[in-house]
Amino acid sequence: MNPSGKAPYTFRAGWALLLLGINFLVAAYYFGILK
């Protein structure tokens, strides 16, 4: 594993966390509406 490969990995990890957070917010929003 090259140290230079850390940048793309961090970028992809950041996007994964961002999408996960958005999904969580959307789910919470819909559950709040259903209640």
Description:
The protein is mainly alpha-helical and 35 residues long. Helix content is 83%, strand content 0%. The model has no long low-confidence stretch (mean pLDDT 85).
List keywords for this structure.
single chain; rod-shaped; 35 residues; mainly alpha
Layout of strands and helices, then pairs:
Elements lengths: L5 H29 L1
The value of Rg in angstroms is 15 Å
Distance between the termini: 48 Å
Number of helical stretches of at least 4 residues: 1
**Shape label:** rod-shaped
Strand content: under 5%
Q: Report the biggest beta sheet as strand number plus sense, adding barrel if it closes.
A: none
Helix content: over 70%
Structural class comes to mainly alpha
Quick structural overview:
This protein is mainly alpha-helical.
